[in-house]
């Protein structure tokens, strides 16, 4: 959306809730959905005399993330206090990282658009740092008061900050989706956006090409990809309209209202918080050894980018296929399992089945690939029978359907039980061809008069007579030979 | 460097500390005294000295990621000024 000769500049900050059992500085559970305040310990409540003790698991998540985006995992990073007053933050400060974050640099590769207009780019990351989440304020009326639930207070977050590298809502959404897939891929965040496990803030500004960066406004707390896109599109248009009407953009934090589709100001620069960061004296610097980083590296699964390259180089898949098949770890694992069982020679066929029939069917029934009724082994068995000419592609769809519905444990069993084996015996096919030729003299005459379509009609008749089971290539060859002769 | 009374009022407001005019004046003097002390220290050449984030040159100890706390809500809420339905009640805040 580079409307009317304006350039759009977008940077994104994401809060990813880390998949740990316990909180970042206390031994309270992080499980979602508990009764209010039953998972809030003395540390989470900021009772006098308590001290935070850092969770090794949360640090490990940060290391994994740093490794997966080619960033530097800082040998030494520092926790700082971010000071502000709000009832869901009992300490009066949030423990975060400021000058020395745990992850520095790195980048996320994104694919934007489809078909001819598709392109790739790398969104550079500035940093990622560890911090604690705040509690929840419930503003329903409790006799004119607010209710505070501190179960979420102290839940570990990784805040991931990009450079202002995106220039459209499409790029922003592509980035958010790629990051979402990545954190789930490496198992550091469950990515549940409804529950708030993955939320984005977008910094948006516009400028005339070649001019310095415009004043930005930050859209807070976008918890779906659709809202991210809608909010950014609205904000871009609003800023352009404002500037073209001779107005000025004021730096501000805004909220997106999904009902109206508009953004509205939450606070302006004048009311901006003055957080007065300083190193938290309760916590010593976090030191991460090379050896710990290496040990963690060994536990990482093959990363999406590496898998994508391997699918292209070793399996000969197109960039498009390889990207689609590495969109999530579940899809990639499934595809890998199919190829392992069916052989690399059938990789293209496996890709077509996984992205075609299987994914269509999963979508239709709103099922996750991990819960697919047709297992990778079953699909591999099916693909093998197509490859060795036991069944045609058309019949294969029938077999797939049967496997989906549980009418057989394997493709072989379905083929056997339903008598779907392809007829490859030349004598048998020849007999069918002769019968069809004898019964369809009109088509034969038309074909001989130069009507190519008549040939297809004859092929159709033979296939019909064979109940779809004749090998299509053999039918073609035999028909041609007989008609030509 | 020395502070103005307005800056003292702002700092007090950020820290949510109520200060009378007399306290602003005495606090101003105290803070300016601290600043001159800092100025003296800043005269020391610290080139090549790695900044420290903590007075002790040690690394943070870590705990294993296990749940070690149990539900003690009833005990904690027994001393809270007001609670309802498991929530702590506070004066209404909407930003």
UniProtKB/TrEMBL annotation, chain A:
GO annotation (BP), single: glutaminyl-tRNAGln biosynthesis via transamidation
Keyword terms: ATP-binding, Ligase, Nucleotide-binding, Protein biosynthesis, Transferase
SUPFAM superfamilies for the chain: GatB/YqeY motif, Glutamine synthetase/guanido kinase
Keyword Transferase: yes
Positions of the Asn/Gln amidotransferase domain: 333-483
Superkingdom per UniProt: Bacteria
InterPro entries: Asn/Gln-tRNA_amidoTrfase_suB/E, Asn/Gln-tRNA_Trfase_suB/E_cat, Asn/Gln_amidotransferase, Asn/Gln_tRNA_amidoTrase-B-like, GatB, GatB_C_1, GatB_Yqey_C_2, Gln-tRNA_amidoTrfase_suB_CS
Pfam (any one): GatB_N
Enzyme's top EC category: ligase
Coiled coil regions, renumbered to chain: none
GO function terms (MF aspect): asparaginyl-tRNA synthase (glutamine-hydrolyzing) activity; ATP binding; glutaminyl-tRNA synthase (glutamine-hydrolyzing) activity; transferase activity
Reaction(s) this enzyme catalyzes, per UniProt: L-aspartyl-tRNA(Asn) + L-glutamine + ATP + H2O = L-asparaginyl-tRNA(Asn) + L-glutamate + ADP + phosphate + 2 H(+); L-glutamyl-tRNA(Gln) + L-glutamine + ATP + H2O = L-glutaminyl-tRNA(Gln) + L-glutamate + ADP + phosphate + H(+)
The enzyme's E.C. designation: 6.3.5.-
Function: Allows the formation of correctly charged Asn-tRNA(Asn) or Gln-tRNA(Gln) through the transamidation of misacylated Asp-tRNA(Asn) or Glu-tRNA(Gln) in organisms which lack either or both of asparaginyl-tRNA or glutaminyl-tRNA synthetases. The reaction takes place in the presence of glutamine and ATP through an activated phospho-Asp-tRNA(Asn) or phospho-Glu-tRNA(Gln).
Family of this protein: Belongs to the GatB/GatE family. GatB subfamily.
Quaternary context: Heterotrimer of A, B and C subunits.
Full protein name: Aspartyl/glutamyl-tRNA(Asn/Gln) amidotransferase subunit B
Source organism (scientific name): Azospira oryzae (strain ATCC BAA-33 / DSM 13638 / PS)
Origin organism lineage: Bacteria, Pseudomonadati, Pseudomonadota, Betaproteobacteria, Rhodocyclales
TrEMBL record, chain B:
GO molecular function: asparaginyl-tRNA synthase (glutamine-hydrolyzing) activity; ATP binding; glutaminyl-tRNA synthase (glutamine-hydrolyzing) activity; transferase activity
BP term (GO), one: glutaminyl-tRNAGln biosynthesis via transamidation
Biological role stated in the UniProt entry: Allows the formation of correctly charged Asn-tRNA(Asn) or Gln-tRNA(Gln) through the transamidation of misacylated Asp-tRNA(Asn) or Glu-tRNA(Gln) in organisms which lack either or both of asparaginyl-tRNA or glutaminyl-tRNA synthetases. The reaction takes place in the presence of glutamine and ATP through an activated phospho-Asp-tRNA(Asn) or phospho-Glu-tRNA(Gln).
Reaction(s) this enzyme catalyzes, per UniProt: L-aspartyl-tRNA(Asn) + L-glutamine + ATP + H2O = L-asparaginyl-tRNA(Asn) + L-glutamate + ADP + phosphate + 2 H(+); L-glutamyl-tRNA(Gln) + L-glutamine + ATP + H2O = L-glutaminyl-tRNA(Gln) + L-glutamate + ADP + phosphate + H(+)
Protein name: Aspartyl/glutamyl-tRNA(Asn/Gln) amidotransferase subunit C
The keyword Protein biosynthesis is assigned to this record: yes
Quaternary structure (record): Heterotrimer of A, B and C subunits.
Signal peptide residue numbers: none
EC number(s) recorded for this UniProt protein: 6.3.5.-
InterPro entries attached to this UniProt entry: Asp/Glu-ADT_sf_sub_c (IPR036113), GatC (IPR003837)
Family: Belongs to the GatC family.
Organism per entry: Azospira oryzae (strain ATCC BAA-33 / DSM 13638 / PS)
Keywords: ATP-binding, Ligase, Nucleotide-binding, Protein biosynthesis, Transferase
Keyword Nucleotide-binding attached: yes
């Amino acid at each position: 959306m580079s409307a009317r000769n304006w350039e759009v500049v977008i940077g994104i900050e994401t809060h990813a809730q880390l998949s740990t059992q316990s909180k970042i500085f206390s031994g309270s559970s992080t499980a979602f959905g508990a009764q209010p305040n039953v998972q809030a310990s003395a540390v989470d409540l900021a009772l006098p005399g308590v001290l935070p003790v850092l969770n090794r698991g949360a640090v490990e998540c940060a290391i994994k993330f740093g490794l997966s985006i080619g960033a530097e995992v800082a040998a030494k990073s520092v926790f700082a206090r971010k000071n502000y007053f709000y009832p869901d933050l009992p300490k009066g400060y949030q423990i975060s990282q400021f000058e020395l974050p745990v992850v520095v640099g790195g980048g996320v590769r994104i694919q934007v658009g489809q078909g001819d207009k598709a392109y790739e780019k790398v969104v550079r990351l500035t940093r990622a740092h560890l911090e604690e989440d705040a509690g929840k304020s419930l503003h329903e009326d409790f006799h004119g008061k607010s209710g505070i639930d501190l179960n979420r207070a102290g839940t570990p977050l990784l805040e991931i900050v990009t450079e202002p590298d995106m220039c459209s809502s499409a790029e922003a959404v592509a980035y958010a989706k790629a990051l979402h897939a990545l954190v789930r891929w490496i198992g550091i965040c469950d990515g549940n956006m409804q529950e708030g496990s993955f939320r984005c803030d977008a910094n948006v500004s516009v400028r005339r090409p070649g001019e310095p960066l415009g004043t930005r406004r930050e859209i807070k707390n976008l918890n779906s990809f659709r809202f991210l896109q809608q909010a950014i599109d609205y904000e871009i248009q609003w800023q352009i309209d404002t500037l073209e009407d001779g107005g000025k953009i004021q730096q501000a934090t805004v909220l997106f209202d999904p009902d109206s589709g508009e953004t509205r100001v939450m606070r302006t620069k004048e009311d901006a918080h003055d957080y007065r960061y300083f190193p938290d004296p309760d916590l010593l610097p976090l030191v991460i050894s090379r050896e710990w980083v290496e040990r963690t590296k060994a536990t990482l699964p093959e990363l999406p980018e590496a898998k994508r390259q391997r699918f292209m180089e070793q399996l000969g898949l197109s960039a498009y296929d390889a990207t689609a098949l590495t969109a999530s770890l579940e899809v990639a694992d499934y595809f890998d399992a199919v190829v392992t069982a069916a052989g690399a020679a059938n990789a293209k066929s496996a890709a077509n089945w996984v992205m075609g029939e299987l994914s269509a069917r999963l979508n239709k029934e709103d099922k996750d690939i991990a819960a697919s009724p047709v297992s990778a082994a079953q699909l591999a068995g099916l693909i093998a029978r197509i490859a060795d000419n036991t069944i045609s592609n058309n019949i294969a769809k029938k077999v797939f359907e049967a496997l989906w519905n549980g009418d057989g444990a394997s493709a072989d069993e379905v083929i056997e039980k339903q008598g779907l084996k392809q007829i490859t015996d030349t004598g048998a096919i020849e007999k069918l061809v002769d019968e069809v030729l004898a019964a369809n003299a009109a088509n034969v005459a038309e074909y001989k008069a130069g009507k190519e379509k008549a040939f297809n009609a004859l092929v159709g008749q033979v296939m019909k007579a064979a109940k779809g089971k004749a090998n299509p290539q053999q039918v073609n060859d035999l028909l041609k030979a007989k008609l030509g002769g | 460097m020395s502070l103005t009374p307005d800056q003292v009022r702002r700092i007090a407001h950020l820290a949510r500390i109520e200060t009378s005019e007399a306290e602003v004046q005495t606090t101003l003097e105290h803070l300016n005294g601290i600043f001159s002390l800092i100025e003296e220290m800043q005269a020391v050449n610290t080139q090549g000295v790695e900044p420290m984030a903590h007075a002790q040159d040690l690394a943070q100890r870590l705990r294993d990621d296990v749940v070690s706390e149990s539900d003690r809500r009833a005990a904690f809420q027994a001393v809270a000024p007001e609670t309802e339905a498991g929530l702590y009640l506070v004066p209404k805040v909407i930003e």
